Amino acid sequence: MSQDNFNLNKLIDLKKWDNLQDSLAEVTRVAIIIVDYKGNPVTKHSGCNRFCKEVRSNPNLVKYCQKCDSRGGIEAVRLNEPYIYLCHYNIIDIAIPIMIDGKYIGAVMAGQVKLSDNNVEDVLEKIAVLSKNSIAEKALDDFKTYYDELPVLSYYQVKKIANMLFAMCNYLVEEALEKNLILDIYKKTIKNHTGIDSNILTGYTMKNIENVKKEMSNTMINAYVEDKISSDRQDIKVTDILKPAIEYIYDHKSENVKLEKMAKICHISPSYFSRLFKKETGENFSNYVSKLKIEWAKSLLEETDMQVNEISDELGFSESGYFIKIFKKYEGVTPFLYMKYCKKE
Question: Which SUPFAM superfamilies does this UniProt record tie to the protein (predicted)?
Answer without folding.
Answer: Homeodomain-like
